[in-house]
Amino acid sequence: MPRPHHSILVRRTVTIAPFNLPFPGPQINIMASALSIQQLGKTYKNGVTALHGIDLEVAQGDFFALLGPNGAGKSTTIGIVSSLVNKTSGKVSVFGHDLDTELAAAKACIGLVPQEFNFNVFEPVVEVLVNQAGYYGVPRRLAFERAERYLNQLGLWDKRHEQARDLSGGMKRRLMIARALVHEPRLLILDEPTAGVDIEIRHSMWNFLVDINKAGTTIILTTHYLEEAERLCRNIAIIDHGRIVENTNMRQLLNRMDTYTLVLDLAQTLAAAPTLEGFTTHLVDDHTLEVEITRNTNINSLFTALSAQDIAVVSLRNKTNRLEELFIRLVGNKAEAA
Amino acid sequence: MNARGQYIAFRAILIKEVLRFTRIWIQTILPPMITTALYFLIFGRLIGSQIGDVHGYHYMQYIVPGLILMAVITNSYANVVSSFFSAKFQRNIEEMLVAPVPNYLIMLGFIGGGLARGLSVGVAVTIVAMLFTPIPLYNLWVAISVLILTSMLFSLGGLINAIYAKNFDHVSIVPTFVLTPLTYLGGVFYSVSMLPPFWQQVSLANPILYMVNAFRYGLLGVTDVHLGVAYLAIIGFIVALFSFALFLLNRGQGIRS
Predict the structure, then answer these.
(1) Interchain contact, B12 vs A44, CB within 8 Å
(2) Looking at domain A258-331, does it have CATH number 3.30.9.10?
(3) Phi/psi at A321 (nearest 5 deg)?
(4) Does A165 touch chain B (CB under 8 A)?
Protein backbone atom coordinates (compact mmCIF):
# COMPACT_ATOMS: atom_id res chain seq x y z
CA MET A 1 0.00 0.00 0.00
CA PRO A 2 1.48 3.36 -0.99
CA ARG A 3 2.74 5.48 1.83
CA PRO A 4 0.85 8.72 2.36
CA HIS A 5 2.88 11.61 1.07
CA HIS A 6 2.73 15.23 0.14
CA SER A 7 2.65 15.54 -3.58
CA ILE A 8 3.76 18.53 -5.53
CA LEU A 9 1.07 17.59 -8.02
CA VAL A 10 -1.63 18.75 -5.63
CA ARG A 11 -2.28 22.41 -6.22
CA ARG A 12 -2.35 24.74 -3.23
CA THR A 13 -0.53 22.21 -1.10
CA VAL A 14 2.68 22.45 -2.98
CA THR A 15 5.23 20.60 -0.94
CA ILE A 16 8.07 18.28 -1.63
CA ALA A 17 8.66 16.19 1.42
CA PRO A 18 11.84 17.00 3.31
CA PHE A 19 14.76 14.99 2.19
CA ASN A 20 15.43 12.41 4.86
CA LEU A 21 18.28 10.57 3.26
CA PRO A 22 20.70 8.38 5.12
CA PHE A 23 23.56 10.77 4.50
CA PRO A 24 26.23 10.20 7.09
CA GLY A 25 25.58 13.50 8.82
CA PRO A 26 26.40 16.94 7.47
CA GLN A 27 29.45 16.66 5.29
CA ILE A 28 29.91 20.31 4.53
CA ASN A 29 33.60 20.93 4.36
CA ILE A 30 34.02 24.20 2.61
CA MET A 31 37.80 23.79 2.40
CA ALA A 32 37.82 20.55 0.40
CA SER A 33 36.86 20.34 -3.26
CA ALA A 34 33.85 18.42 -4.48
CA LEU A 35 34.94 19.26 -8.00
CA SER A 36 38.32 20.44 -9.16
CA ILE A 37 38.92 21.41 -12.78
CA GLN A 38 42.34 22.45 -13.99
CA GLN A 39 43.14 23.77 -17.45
CA LEU A 40 40.26 21.85 -18.97
CA GLY A 41 40.21 22.08 -22.74
CA LYS A 42 37.92 20.61 -25.34
CA THR A 43 38.14 20.78 -29.10
CA TYR A 44 35.53 18.80 -31.01
CA LYS A 45 36.30 16.79 -34.15
CA ASN A 46 34.79 19.55 -36.29
CA GLY A 47 37.49 21.89 -35.00
CA VAL A 48 35.26 23.89 -32.67
CA THR A 49 37.00 24.66 -29.41
CA ALA A 50 34.37 24.64 -26.68
CA LEU A 51 36.68 25.09 -23.68
CA HIS A 52 39.93 27.05 -23.57
CA GLY A 53 41.63 25.62 -20.50
CA ILE A 54 39.23 26.56 -17.74
CA ASP A 55 39.90 26.29 -13.99
CA LEU A 56 37.10 25.78 -11.51
CA GLU A 57 36.78 24.69 -7.89
CA VAL A 58 33.52 23.75 -6.25
CA ALA A 59 33.71 23.25 -2.51
CA GLN A 60 32.05 20.36 -0.73
CA GLY A 61 28.56 21.28 0.43
CA ASP A 62 28.35 24.24 -1.94
CA PHE A 63 25.34 25.22 -4.01
CA PHE A 64 27.16 26.43 -7.09
CA ALA A 65 25.80 28.19 -10.19
CA LEU A 66 27.48 27.66 -13.55
CA LEU A 67 25.99 30.21 -15.91
CA GLY A 68 26.68 31.28 -19.43
CA PRO A 69 24.95 32.04 -22.70
CA ASN A 70 23.94 29.26 -25.07
CA GLY A 71 27.00 27.59 -26.55
CA ALA A 72 29.33 29.03 -23.91
CA GLY A 73 30.65 25.64 -22.81
CA LYS A 74 28.47 24.79 -19.80
CA SER A 75 27.11 21.51 -21.16
CA THR A 76 30.55 20.52 -22.46
CA THR A 77 31.98 21.07 -18.99
CA ILE A 78 29.21 19.04 -17.39
CA GLY A 79 29.59 16.38 -20.10
CA ILE A 80 33.29 15.99 -19.35
CA VAL A 81 32.76 15.86 -15.59
CA SER A 82 30.10 13.18 -16.01
CA SER A 83 32.31 11.39 -18.59
CA LEU A 84 29.88 11.70 -21.48
CA VAL A 85 32.35 13.89 -23.35
CA ASN A 86 36.04 13.11 -23.80
CA LYS A 87 38.27 15.99 -22.77
CA THR A 88 41.10 17.20 -24.97
CA SER A 89 43.33 18.43 -22.16
CA GLY A 90 43.42 19.25 -18.47
CA LYS A 91 42.51 17.47 -15.26
CA VAL A 92 39.22 16.85 -13.51
CA SER A 93 38.78 15.31 -10.10
CA VAL A 94 35.61 14.63 -8.13
CA PHE A 95 36.05 14.41 -4.37
CA GLY A 96 39.72 13.77 -5.00
CA HIS A 97 39.14 11.00 -7.56
CA ASP A 98 40.93 11.82 -10.80
CA LEU A 99 38.83 11.09 -13.88
CA ASP A 100 41.89 9.70 -15.66
CA THR A 101 42.96 7.26 -12.97
CA GLU A 102 39.89 6.64 -10.76
CA LEU A 103 37.04 7.00 -13.18
CA ALA A 104 34.66 4.53 -11.53
CA ALA A 105 35.13 6.09 -8.08
CA ALA A 106 34.56 9.57 -9.52
CA LYS A 107 31.43 8.44 -11.38
CA ALA A 108 30.00 6.86 -8.23
CA CYS A 109 30.07 10.30 -6.55
CA ILE A 110 28.04 12.05 -9.25
CA GLY A 111 24.33 12.26 -9.95
CA LEU A 112 23.48 13.92 -13.25
CA VAL A 113 20.26 15.61 -14.30
CA PRO A 114 20.90 16.43 -17.96
CA GLN A 115 19.23 19.16 -19.92
CA GLU A 116 17.50 16.79 -22.36
CA PHE A 117 15.20 13.97 -21.30
CA ASN A 118 17.33 10.87 -21.65
CA PHE A 119 15.41 8.03 -20.07
CA ASN A 120 13.80 5.17 -21.96
CA VAL A 121 10.35 6.61 -22.60
CA PHE A 122 8.84 3.13 -22.89
CA GLU A 123 9.93 2.01 -19.44
CA PRO A 124 7.62 2.32 -16.44
CA VAL A 125 8.65 5.15 -14.13
CA VAL A 126 9.72 2.90 -11.26
CA GLU A 127 11.91 0.80 -13.56
CA VAL A 128 13.80 3.89 -14.73
CA LEU A 129 14.92 4.41 -11.13
CA VAL A 130 15.50 0.78 -10.23
CA ASN A 131 17.61 0.16 -13.34
CA GLN A 132 19.68 3.27 -12.71
CA ALA A 133 20.33 2.21 -9.13
CA GLY A 134 21.40 -1.20 -10.41
CA TYR A 135 24.04 0.36 -12.68
CA TYR A 136 25.59 1.83 -9.53
CA GLY A 137 25.57 -1.55 -7.79
CA VAL A 138 22.56 -0.85 -5.55
CA PRO A 139 20.82 -4.19 -4.80
CA ARG A 140 17.40 -4.51 -6.40
CA ARG A 141 15.38 -4.63 -3.16
CA LEU A 142 17.10 -1.50 -1.82
CA ALA A 143 16.64 0.12 -5.22
CA PHE A 144 12.88 -0.42 -5.02
CA GLU A 145 12.81 1.07 -1.50
CA ARG A 146 14.71 4.13 -2.63
CA ALA A 147 12.59 4.44 -5.76
CA GLU A 148 9.47 4.52 -3.59
CA ARG A 149 11.00 7.13 -1.29
CA TYR A 150 12.16 9.49 -4.03
CA LEU A 151 9.09 9.07 -6.19
CA ASN A 152 6.99 9.92 -3.15
CA GLN A 153 9.11 12.94 -2.35
CA LEU A 154 8.86 14.18 -5.90
CA GLY A 155 5.15 13.47 -6.21
CA LEU A 156 5.49 10.69 -8.78
CA TRP A 157 4.68 7.57 -6.78
CA ASP A 158 1.14 7.42 -8.18
CA LYS A 159 2.65 7.35 -11.67
CA ARG A 160 5.13 4.57 -10.93
CA HIS A 161 3.58 2.04 -13.30
CA GLU A 162 3.04 4.48 -16.16
CA GLN A 163 5.40 4.62 -19.09
CA ALA A 164 7.74 7.59 -18.79
CA ARG A 165 6.49 8.99 -22.10
CA ASP A 166 3.04 9.53 -20.59
CA LEU A 167 4.33 11.97 -17.96
CA SER A 168 3.94 15.72 -18.34
CA GLY A 169 7.03 17.85 -18.95
CA GLY A 170 7.29 18.85 -15.29
CA MET A 171 6.92 15.24 -14.17
CA LYS A 172 9.67 14.17 -16.56
CA ARG A 173 11.97 16.78 -15.03
CA ARG A 174 11.21 15.46 -11.55
CA LEU A 175 11.72 11.89 -12.73
CA MET A 176 15.22 12.85 -13.86
CA ILE A 177 15.95 14.37 -10.46
CA ALA A 178 14.70 11.22 -8.70
CA ARG A 179 16.81 9.08 -11.02
CA ALA A 180 19.92 11.14 -10.32
CA LEU A 181 19.42 10.73 -6.57
CA VAL A 182 18.63 7.03 -6.42
CA HIS A 183 22.25 6.03 -5.85
CA GLU A 184 22.64 8.86 -3.32
CA PRO A 185 25.42 10.86 -4.96
CA ARG A 186 27.61 13.31 -3.09
CA LEU A 187 27.63 15.71 -6.04
CA LEU A 188 24.41 16.49 -7.89
CA ILE A 189 24.77 18.24 -11.25
CA LEU A 190 21.61 19.86 -12.55
CA ASP A 191 21.58 21.12 -16.12
CA GLU A 192 18.49 23.29 -16.52
CA PRO A 193 16.42 21.26 -14.05
CA THR A 194 13.38 23.52 -14.05
CA ALA A 195 13.12 24.26 -17.78
CA GLY A 196 9.47 24.15 -18.80
CA VAL A 197 8.25 23.69 -15.24
CA ASP A 198 5.46 25.95 -14.00
CA ILE A 199 6.20 28.49 -11.27
CA GLU A 200 4.44 26.63 -8.47
CA ILE A 201 6.29 23.38 -9.01
CA ARG A 202 9.54 25.24 -9.69
CA HIS A 203 9.36 26.81 -6.24
CA SER A 204 8.71 23.40 -4.70
CA MET A 205 11.70 21.99 -6.54
CA TRP A 206 13.83 24.84 -5.19
CA ASN A 207 12.81 23.96 -1.65
CA PHE A 208 13.59 20.34 -2.34
CA LEU A 209 17.04 21.17 -3.70
CA VAL A 210 17.77 23.42 -0.73
CA ASP A 211 16.85 20.54 1.57
CA ILE A 212 19.16 18.04 -0.09
CA ASN A 213 21.94 20.62 -0.14
CA LYS A 214 21.46 21.18 3.59
CA ALA A 215 21.63 17.40 4.03
CA GLY A 216 25.15 17.49 2.62
CA THR A 217 24.88 17.05 -1.13
CA THR A 218 27.00 19.44 -3.17
CA ILE A 219 24.96 20.90 -6.03
CA ILE A 220 26.08 22.43 -9.30
CA LEU A 221 23.29 24.17 -11.17
CA THR A 222 23.01 25.62 -14.62
CA THR A 223 19.82 27.46 -15.38
CA HIS A 224 18.14 29.91 -17.70
CA TYR A 225 16.28 31.38 -14.74
CA LEU A 226 18.78 33.72 -13.14
CA GLU A 227 16.40 34.37 -10.28
CA GLU A 228 16.81 30.66 -9.54
CA ALA A 229 20.59 30.93 -9.39
CA GLU A 230 20.45 34.12 -7.30
CA ARG A 231 18.03 32.58 -4.86
CA LEU A 232 19.67 29.17 -4.48
CA CYS A 233 23.40 29.46 -5.07
CA ARG A 234 26.17 30.67 -2.78
CA ASN A 235 28.91 30.76 -5.39
CA ILE A 236 28.86 31.36 -9.09
CA ALA A 237 30.97 31.00 -12.20
CA ILE A 238 30.06 32.59 -15.50
CA ILE A 239 31.45 31.00 -18.63
CA ASP A 240 31.51 32.64 -22.03
CA HIS A 241 33.11 31.45 -25.25
CA GLY A 242 34.77 28.60 -23.38
CA ARG A 243 36.40 30.82 -20.76
CA ILE A 244 35.48 31.54 -17.17
CA VAL A 245 34.77 35.27 -17.09
CA GLU A 246 33.66 35.41 -13.47
CA ASN A 247 34.05 33.07 -10.52
CA THR A 248 33.07 34.47 -7.17
CA ASN A 249 30.69 34.55 -4.26
CA MET A 250 27.11 35.39 -5.24
CA ARG A 251 26.77 38.15 -2.66
CA GLN A 252 30.04 39.80 -3.68
CA LEU A 253 28.97 39.66 -7.30
CA LEU A 254 25.62 41.25 -6.61
CA ASN A 255 27.28 43.95 -4.50
CA ARG A 256 29.13 45.01 -7.62
CA MET A 257 25.87 46.30 -9.06
CA ASP A 258 26.44 50.04 -9.13
CA THR A 259 23.11 50.93 -10.71
CA TYR A 260 19.71 49.35 -11.19
CA THR A 261 16.60 50.38 -13.10
CA LEU A 262 13.08 50.88 -11.79
CA VAL A 263 10.09 50.83 -14.11
CA LEU A 264 7.34 53.22 -13.01
CA ASP A 265 3.75 52.99 -14.23
CA LEU A 266 2.38 56.53 -14.30
CA ALA A 267 -1.10 57.80 -13.48
CA GLN A 268 -1.01 60.34 -16.29
CA THR A 269 0.54 60.50 -19.74
CA LEU A 270 3.85 62.20 -20.42
CA ALA A 271 5.03 63.62 -23.71
CA ALA A 272 8.73 63.49 -22.80
CA ALA A 273 10.97 62.01 -20.12
CA PRO A 274 11.14 64.43 -17.15
CA THR A 275 14.47 65.73 -15.94
CA LEU A 276 15.06 64.53 -12.36
CA GLU A 277 18.18 65.66 -10.59
CA GLY A 278 20.42 62.73 -9.64
CA PHE A 279 18.54 60.24 -11.84
CA THR A 280 18.67 59.16 -15.48
CA THR A 281 15.23 58.75 -17.00
CA HIS A 282 13.88 57.14 -20.14
CA LEU A 283 10.28 57.26 -21.33
CA VAL A 284 9.31 53.82 -22.62
CA ASP A 285 5.81 54.90 -23.62
CA ASP A 286 3.55 57.74 -22.50
CA HIS A 287 2.57 55.85 -19.34
CA THR A 288 5.84 54.10 -18.50
CA LEU A 289 9.02 55.69 -17.19
CA GLU A 290 12.32 53.95 -16.53
CA VAL A 291 14.61 55.45 -13.91
CA GLU A 292 18.22 54.37 -13.46
CA ILE A 293 19.24 54.60 -9.82
CA THR A 294 22.73 54.53 -8.38
CA ARG A 295 23.26 52.01 -5.62
CA ASN A 296 22.91 53.45 -2.10
CA THR A 297 20.75 56.30 -3.38
CA ASN A 298 17.75 57.01 -1.17
CA ILE A 299 14.79 56.45 -3.46
CA ASN A 300 12.60 58.76 -1.34
CA SER A 301 14.39 61.54 -3.19
CA LEU A 302 13.10 60.07 -6.46
CA PHE A 303 9.51 60.31 -5.32
CA THR A 304 10.11 63.81 -3.96
CA ALA A 305 11.43 64.84 -7.37
CA LEU A 306 8.47 63.21 -9.14
CA SER A 307 5.96 64.84 -6.79
CA ALA A 308 7.57 68.22 -7.41
CA GLN A 309 6.67 67.77 -11.09
CA ASP A 310 3.16 66.51 -10.28
CA ILE A 311 3.96 63.04 -11.65
CA ALA A 312 1.96 60.36 -9.84
CA VAL A 313 3.21 56.78 -9.78
CA VAL A 314 0.67 53.94 -9.80
CA SER A 315 3.12 51.07 -9.37
CA LEU A 316 6.79 50.23 -9.74
CA ARG A 317 9.01 47.19 -10.29
CA ASN A 318 12.62 46.26 -10.98
CA LYS A 319 13.35 46.20 -14.69
CA THR A 320 15.39 43.01 -14.43
CA ASN A 321 16.56 40.69 -11.79
CA ARG A 322 19.92 41.91 -10.40
CA LEU A 323 21.88 38.88 -11.45
CA GLU A 324 20.38 39.03 -14.91
CA GLU A 325 21.57 42.60 -15.31
CA LEU A 326 25.07 41.69 -14.15
CA PHE A 327 25.10 38.65 -16.35
CA ILE A 328 24.28 40.64 -19.44
CA ARG A 329 27.02 43.12 -18.61
CA LEU A 330 29.57 40.35 -18.12
CA VAL A 331 28.89 38.33 -21.23
CA GLY A 332 27.88 41.22 -23.45
CA ASN A 333 24.55 42.15 -24.94
CA LYS A 334 24.62 39.23 -27.36
CA ALA A 335 23.69 36.85 -24.61
CA GLU A 336 20.14 35.65 -24.97
CA ALA A 337 20.02 34.20 -21.51
CA ALA A 338 22.06 32.06 -19.24
CA MET B 1 33.02 -1.02 -8.16
CA ASN B 2 33.61 -4.33 -6.43
CA ALA B 3 32.67 -7.77 -7.78
CA ARG B 4 29.26 -7.75 -6.06
CA GLY B 5 28.51 -4.30 -7.43
CA GLN B 6 29.50 -5.46 -10.90
CA TYR B 7 27.25 -8.51 -10.61
CA ILE B 8 24.34 -6.26 -9.57
CA ALA B 9 25.02 -3.90 -12.48
CA PHE B 10 25.19 -6.79 -14.97
CA ARG B 11 21.96 -8.22 -13.57
CA ALA B 12 20.26 -4.83 -13.85
CA ILE B 13 21.18 -4.52 -17.53
CA LEU B 14 20.15 -8.12 -18.21
CA ILE B 15 16.77 -7.74 -16.47
CA LYS B 16 16.15 -4.50 -18.33
CA GLU B 17 16.94 -6.20 -21.64
CA VAL B 18 14.76 -9.24 -20.94
CA LEU B 19 11.85 -7.08 -19.78
CA ARG B 20 12.22 -5.00 -22.93
CA PHE B 21 11.66 -7.84 -25.38
CA THR B 22 9.13 -9.73 -23.28
CA ARG B 23 7.05 -6.56 -22.85
CA ILE B 24 6.70 -6.40 -26.64
CA TRP B 25 6.42 -10.18 -27.20
CA ILE B 26 3.91 -9.63 -30.01
CA GLN B 27 6.71 -7.94 -31.95
CA THR B 28 9.56 -10.16 -30.79
CA ILE B 29 8.43 -13.73 -30.05
CA LEU B 30 5.27 -14.24 -32.07
CA PRO B 31 6.43 -13.21 -35.60
CA PRO B 32 9.24 -15.81 -35.86
CA MET B 33 6.79 -18.51 -34.77
CA ILE B 34 4.37 -17.55 -37.52
CA THR B 35 7.14 -17.20 -40.12
CA THR B 36 8.58 -20.59 -39.23
CA ALA B 37 5.13 -22.20 -39.37
CA LEU B 38 4.76 -20.81 -42.89
CA TYR B 39 8.21 -22.13 -43.87
CA PHE B 40 7.26 -25.59 -42.66
CA LEU B 41 3.91 -25.43 -44.39
CA ILE B 42 5.27 -24.25 -47.75
CA PHE B 43 8.82 -25.63 -47.95
CA GLY B 44 8.33 -28.61 -45.70
CA ARG B 45 4.88 -29.95 -46.45
CA LEU B 46 3.92 -28.62 -49.88
CA ILE B 47 7.27 -28.42 -51.72
CA GLY B 48 9.27 -30.74 -49.44
CA SER B 49 7.00 -33.68 -50.21
CA GLN B 50 8.17 -33.44 -53.84
CA ILE B 51 11.88 -33.39 -52.89
CA GLY B 52 12.31 -36.65 -51.04
CA ASP B 53 14.98 -37.51 -48.46
CA VAL B 54 18.20 -35.60 -47.79
CA HIS B 55 20.99 -37.42 -45.94
CA GLY B 56 18.41 -40.04 -44.94
CA TYR B 57 15.90 -37.58 -43.43
CA HIS B 58 12.59 -36.28 -44.74
CA TYR B 59 13.12 -32.84 -46.21
CA MET B 60 10.95 -31.25 -43.52
CA GLN B 61 13.11 -32.80 -40.79
CA TYR B 62 16.26 -31.83 -42.64
CA ILE B 63 15.38 -28.11 -42.67
CA VAL B 64 14.29 -28.00 -39.00
CA PRO B 65 17.79 -27.26 -37.56
CA GLY B 66 18.45 -24.56 -40.13
CA LEU B 67 15.12 -22.86 -39.53
CA ILE B 68 15.57 -22.91 -35.75
CA LEU B 69 19.07 -21.52 -36.08
CA MET B 70 17.94 -18.91 -38.59
CA ALA B 71 15.35 -17.66 -36.10
CA VAL B 72 17.98 -17.60 -33.34
CA ILE B 73 20.48 -15.71 -35.51
CA THR B 74 17.94 -13.15 -36.71
CA ASN B 75 16.46 -12.50 -33.28
CA SER B 76 19.73 -12.35 -31.36
CA TYR B 77 21.02 -9.82 -33.86
CA ALA B 78 17.77 -7.84 -34.02
CA ASN B 79 17.45 -7.67 -30.24
CA VAL B 80 20.83 -6.11 -29.61
CA VAL B 81 20.94 -3.86 -32.65
CA SER B 82 17.50 -2.40 -31.93
CA SER B 83 17.94 -2.16 -28.17
CA PHE B 84 21.40 -0.56 -28.25
CA PHE B 85 20.56 1.77 -31.12
CA SER B 86 17.32 2.93 -29.51
CA ALA B 87 19.29 3.50 -26.28
CA LYS B 88 21.64 5.67 -28.32
CA PHE B 89 18.79 7.36 -30.15
CA GLN B 90 16.86 8.18 -26.95
CA ARG B 91 20.18 8.83 -25.21
CA ASN B 92 19.28 6.55 -22.32
CA ILE B 93 22.58 4.77 -22.99
CA GLU B 94 23.91 7.72 -20.96
CA GLU B 95 22.32 6.15 -17.89
CA MET B 96 24.98 3.45 -18.13
CA LEU B 97 27.78 5.67 -19.37
CA VAL B 98 27.60 7.98 -16.35
CA ALA B 99 27.50 5.03 -13.95
CA PRO B 100 30.62 3.20 -12.75
CA VAL B 101 29.71 0.09 -14.73
CA PRO B 102 32.63 -1.11 -16.90
CA ASN B 103 32.16 -1.29 -20.66
CA TYR B 104 32.63 -5.04 -20.78
CA LEU B 105 29.68 -5.45 -18.40
CA ILE B 106 27.53 -3.23 -20.61
CA MET B 107 28.48 -5.53 -23.49
CA LEU B 108 27.75 -8.68 -21.51
CA GLY B 109 24.38 -7.28 -20.44
CA PHE B 110 23.32 -6.58 -24.01
CA ILE B 111 24.71 -9.92 -25.21
CA GLY B 112 22.78 -11.60 -22.40
CA GLY B 113 19.62 -9.89 -23.67
CA GLY B 114 20.29 -11.07 -27.22
CA LEU B 115 20.96 -14.56 -25.93
CA ALA B 116 17.74 -14.59 -23.90
CA ARG B 117 15.65 -13.51 -26.86
CA GLY B 118 17.49 -15.79 -29.30
CA LEU B 119 16.99 -18.82 -27.07
CA SER B 120 13.39 -17.91 -26.26
CA VAL B 121 12.59 -17.68 -29.94
CA GLY B 122 14.58 -20.88 -30.56
CA VAL B 123 12.43 -22.75 -28.04
CA ALA B 124 9.23 -21.23 -29.46
CA VAL B 125 10.18 -22.16 -33.02
CA THR B 126 11.14 -25.68 -31.93
CA ILE B 127 7.68 -26.11 -30.41
CA VAL B 128 6.12 -24.94 -33.69
CA ALA B 129 8.37 -27.36 -35.64
CA MET B 130 7.26 -30.24 -33.44
CA LEU B 131 3.70 -29.63 -34.58
CA PHE B 132 4.82 -30.50 -38.12
CA THR B 133 7.39 -33.23 -37.66
CA PRO B 134 9.14 -35.20 -34.92
CA ILE B 135 12.58 -33.74 -34.14
CA PRO B 136 15.39 -36.17 -33.37
CA LEU B 137 18.11 -35.24 -30.91
CA TYR B 138 21.46 -36.77 -31.83
CA ASN B 139 23.75 -34.89 -29.43
CA LEU B 140 22.18 -32.55 -26.86
CA TRP B 141 25.43 -30.84 -25.84
CA VAL B 142 26.45 -30.04 -29.40
CA ALA B 143 22.98 -28.70 -30.14
CA ILE B 144 22.85 -26.50 -27.02
CA SER B 145 26.42 -25.26 -27.23
CA VAL B 146 26.11 -24.33 -30.91
CA LEU B 147 22.81 -22.58 -30.21
CA ILE B 148 24.30 -20.52 -27.37
CA LEU B 149 27.55 -19.69 -29.17
CA THR B 150 25.75 -18.70 -32.36
CA SER B 151 23.35 -16.50 -30.43
CA MET B 152 26.28 -14.83 -28.65
CA LEU B 153 28.09 -14.28 -31.93
CA PHE B 154 25.17 -12.58 -33.61
CA SER B 155 24.35 -10.57 -30.51
CA LEU B 156 27.89 -9.19 -30.80
CA GLY B 157 27.31 -8.51 -34.49
CA GLY B 158 24.16 -6.58 -33.63
CA LEU B 159 26.03 -4.59 -31.00
CA ILE B 160 28.77 -3.52 -33.43
CA ASN B 161 26.13 -2.61 -36.02
CA ALA B 162 24.33 -0.49 -33.40
CA ILE B 163 27.53 1.23 -32.29
CA TYR B 164 28.19 2.40 -35.85
CA ALA B 165 24.55 3.09 -36.79
CA LYS B 166 23.60 6.74 -37.06
CA ASN B 167 20.00 6.27 -38.19
CA PHE B 168 17.37 3.54 -38.50
CA ASP B 169 18.46 2.77 -42.10
CA HIS B 170 21.85 1.70 -40.79
CA VAL B 171 20.14 -0.67 -38.38
CA SER B 172 18.39 -2.52 -41.18
CA ILE B 173 21.10 -2.50 -43.87
CA VAL B 174 23.23 -5.32 -42.44
CA PRO B 175 20.35 -7.70 -41.64
CA THR B 176 18.78 -7.10 -45.04
CA PHE B 177 21.80 -7.11 -47.31
CA VAL B 178 24.28 -9.30 -45.43
CA LEU B 179 22.68 -11.46 -42.77
CA THR B 180 19.63 -12.69 -44.66
CA PRO B 181 21.51 -13.68 -47.86
CA LEU B 182 24.26 -15.42 -45.87
CA THR B 183 21.65 -17.28 -43.83
CA TYR B 184 19.66 -18.41 -46.86
CA LEU B 185 22.89 -19.44 -48.61
CA GLY B 186 24.20 -21.10 -45.45
CA GLY B 187 22.61 -24.47 -46.09
CA VAL B 188 19.37 -23.87 -44.21
CA PHE B 189 17.24 -25.34 -46.99
CA TYR B 190 19.77 -27.61 -48.70
CA SER B 191 22.93 -29.62 -48.28
CA VAL B 192 25.99 -28.06 -49.90
CA SER B 193 26.74 -31.49 -51.32
CA MET B 194 23.82 -30.81 -53.70
CA LEU B 195 25.75 -27.87 -55.19
CA PRO B 196 28.28 -28.00 -58.07
CA PRO B 197 31.90 -28.26 -56.78
CA PHE B 198 32.66 -24.56 -57.44
CA TRP B 199 29.68 -23.34 -55.38
CA GLN B 200 30.51 -25.87 -52.69
CA GLN B 201 33.88 -24.14 -52.30
CA VAL B 202 32.31 -20.71 -52.36
CA SER B 203 29.82 -21.79 -49.68
CA LEU B 204 32.67 -22.75 -47.37
CA ALA B 205 33.50 -19.04 -47.06
CA ASN B 206 30.11 -18.43 -45.46
CA PRO B 207 30.46 -18.64 -41.66
CA ILE B 208 26.76 -19.34 -41.19
CA LEU B 209 27.19 -22.61 -43.09
CA TYR B 210 29.36 -23.92 -40.22
CA MET B 211 26.83 -22.97 -37.58
CA VAL B 212 23.87 -24.43 -39.40
CA ASN B 213 25.71 -27.69 -40.04
CA ALA B 214 27.06 -27.95 -36.51
CA PHE B 215 23.54 -27.47 -35.13
CA ARG B 216 22.17 -29.94 -37.68
CA TYR B 217 24.74 -32.41 -36.40
CA GLY B 218 23.46 -31.88 -32.86
CA LEU B 219 19.89 -32.69 -33.89
CA LEU B 220 20.24 -35.07 -36.84
CA GLY B 221 23.82 -36.31 -36.66
CA VAL B 222 24.60 -35.19 -40.23
CA THR B 223 26.83 -32.32 -41.32
CA ASP B 224 28.52 -30.99 -44.45
CA VAL B 225 31.48 -29.58 -42.48
CA HIS B 226 33.88 -30.85 -39.83
CA LEU B 227 32.51 -30.16 -36.33
CA GLY B 228 35.89 -29.03 -34.98
CA VAL B 229 36.26 -26.48 -37.76
CA ALA B 230 32.75 -25.23 -37.03
CA TYR B 231 33.47 -24.71 -33.32
CA LEU B 232 36.81 -23.08 -34.14
CA ALA B 233 35.15 -20.69 -36.57
CA ILE B 234 32.33 -19.74 -34.18
CA ILE B 235 34.58 -19.23 -31.15
CA GLY B 236 37.17 -17.40 -33.26
CA PHE B 237 34.53 -14.98 -34.52
CA ILE B 238 33.20 -14.46 -30.98
CA VAL B 239 36.66 -13.58 -29.65
CA ALA B 240 37.34 -11.25 -32.58
CA LEU B 241 33.99 -9.45 -32.41
CA PHE B 242 34.04 -9.19 -28.61
CA SER B 243 37.49 -7.60 -28.70
CA PHE B 244 36.47 -5.23 -31.47
CA ALA B 245 33.20 -4.20 -29.78
CA LEU B 246 35.03 -3.59 -26.49
CA PHE B 247 37.62 -1.50 -28.30
CA LEU B 248 34.83 0.58 -29.85
CA LEU B 249 33.06 1.12 -26.52
CA ASN B 250 36.30 2.03 -24.75
CA ARG B 251 37.00 4.55 -27.49
CA GLY B 252 33.48 5.95 -27.11
CA GLN B 253 32.65 5.30 -30.76
CA GLY B 254 29.18 6.66 -31.49
CA ILE B 255 28.36 7.24 -27.82
CA ARG B 256 30.81 9.86 -26.55
CA SER B 257 31.78 13.10 -28.27
Answers:
(1) no
(2) no
(3) -65, 145
(4) no
